[in-house]
Fold these 2 entries.
Entry 1:
Amino acid sequence: MEQPTPEQLTGLTDLDPEGLRAALLAAVDVLVEELARIESRAVFPAIEPGSLVPLFPKAPPEAPESLAAILADHRALVEPNATQWQHPGFLAYFPTSASSVGIVGELLMTALGQNTMLWRTSPIGTELEQVVVGWLRDAFGLPGSFDGFLTDTASTSSLIAIAAAREAAGMDVARRGLAGRPELGRPRLYASEEAHSSIEKAAMTLGIGRDNVVRVPVDRELRMNVGALEAAIAADAAAGHRPIAVVATLGTTSSTSVDPVAAIGDVAARHGLWLHVDAAYAGAAALLPERRADFRGWERADSIVVNPHKWLFSPIDASLLLTRRMDQLRAAFSLVPEYLRTLDREGAVRDVNEYTPQLGRRFRALKLWVLLRWFGLEGLRRRIRHHLELATTLAGWVDADPAFERLAPVPFSTVCLRYAPPGPAGETTDEREARLDALNQHLIDAVNRTGEVFLSHTRLDGRFAIRVAIGQVRTEARHVERAWALLQHEAAILG
Ligand SMILES: Cc1ncc(COP(=O)(O)O)c(C=O)c1O
């Protein structure tokens, strides 16, 4: 197929259909080849900060360039300098996979060019979103009282939920703001010490402030201590503060621990507080009937976030925000200027922008609709179960090796560990911890430098922990075996 000429690329309108076909096919060849050779790439490339900017011209070209030249530069300059999230050895953070079907879905979504801000600007975007939200809600075993929509990230979903919680607490901040209202007291949020930073960021953004996020202590298994939650709320109420919401995390970021959401829900209900559940990563496991016990009680939440772009193999971005209180989200964000009114159908349609801080929205439901049909729920369950099994196997290897320690239970597909060889005689506990912290920092660097796998770290109970997070759709047993072999090998070299 002929490549489009520069003239075609810059005609006064757009490519003709044949030109578009040729351009897409050329790009498809490049991306398929890239995925085919992904394992020959270092997951994290050996590049230094600032080394990429000089590779690119200081100004864009005045004259059109050929697609062939652009794609050649993409292969030479872009692909090798990417962190390879698509690599099966990507075991860092929580993996995000652009599964093959996800790539197809994104392509269809982009080509349709929908802005789903209003029903009128995308009837199918608005209504297919309702369908997909209902499919996922039911597949997670949640009741029909949950409605919702899709956002870009869990950070946005949680921000929206907390803004709604504030409205539900009667603060009328959307209209009156916070400034100059001492009668409001200090609005307070409660989340465990292990909750994701996005909760504090939401508090920063919403004018609640980080100081008003009460970090509730956790138990030995890194789950929120419900007695401490109850005590913190009571102390705040006695001090004249204004408790608003409790955030329970099902699958915390560091260790994937599971807060006791049923008991937390009881406390929230007793104090009339909004319950937000952050299941951004682990929510996907609710597709498995045998794993529902971990989620028992989340059906009483006011809002729940699950990210299909984490463990449901959707390309970034796709975050599902479910809520039983759409009215409160609307109270927090609805503002309809004349130019956005739907005069002939006022009140009869859902305009999703009324529930979100931003106006323009992508048609994310399309890619999820394609993805859910392509995998089927069974296909998703099989892959999630596979990841759970791989993590259990790895945890067993760690436990069986006296030179390593597992630093947290493994409820899902993430294993936290450290290399812990014996130290010199007479070493104090503090000395031992400092030695192991340094050793494990060297170890993760050494393993990541191989380029075969990519791991990230956290701190658990003050200790430097290496995380192995299994969730890339392409990850197989051999990649986890290799990660473990590299950890053992590099550890032996470090001594
Ligand atoms: C539990 C939890 N919540 C929220 C987030 C934030 O996700 P996002 O990047 O979609 O904002 C993460 C990210 O890893 C997470 O682990």
Entry 2:
Amino acid sequence: MNLVDILFPKFCLGCRMKNYFLCPACLGKVRLVRQICVECEKPSVDGFTHIKCKRPWGLDGAVSIWEYEKVIRQSILKLKYNFAYEIADELAVYTVHYLKTNVHALPSNTILVPVPLYMRRERWRGFNQSERIGKIIAEKMGWNFSPEQVVRKSSTVPQVELRGKQRKMNLKDVFALNSSKKLNGASIVVFDDVMTTGTTLKEVGRVLKRGGAGEVWGLTLSR
Ligand SMILES: [Zn+2]
Ligand SMILES: [Zn+2]
């Protein structure tokens, strides 16, 4: 046992069981999402964007894993606080297990790009949870990891406080490609913790495709 375990003993966020933040039993109670087409939000096998829904610079598909409920919701909410690194690590391990056993549509030779947070908010939160989780996922999946591929240009009002059209406006031209990192047709998985409308993923995807990416998918823990 190290000092951190003594000072901050781990308890499952769902049932208080020792040694986990998300114990397998509580995670098992969270429903898995049904994959949808990110454009029309209707069911789609493996999360592919329907051929008829494809748009210029649009995502080729998107995969989410869990419903935003129970211990998944609790752990994602906790990620917003400092020192939640271990929760991030557990989520990453469960995600990789799920991807390896259930998901076959994501491009195999790929670069994981986490959705960037605006610098100021990142510092306030302590860390970019999508970057932390994404890094572990990339390592364990054998993907490349490129946290500086896309940068956020300016501060925006958090998406959850806005609706529909406002959300789109809020994100228009918020992200920019890091011009020092060439894409040359590379396959990309854009990663975020939660997908609400998919607008953020789509916007990051658009920037990447315009910058020369090939296939681009979205991946989120929850929806
Ligand atoms: Zn539990
Ligand atoms: Zn569709």
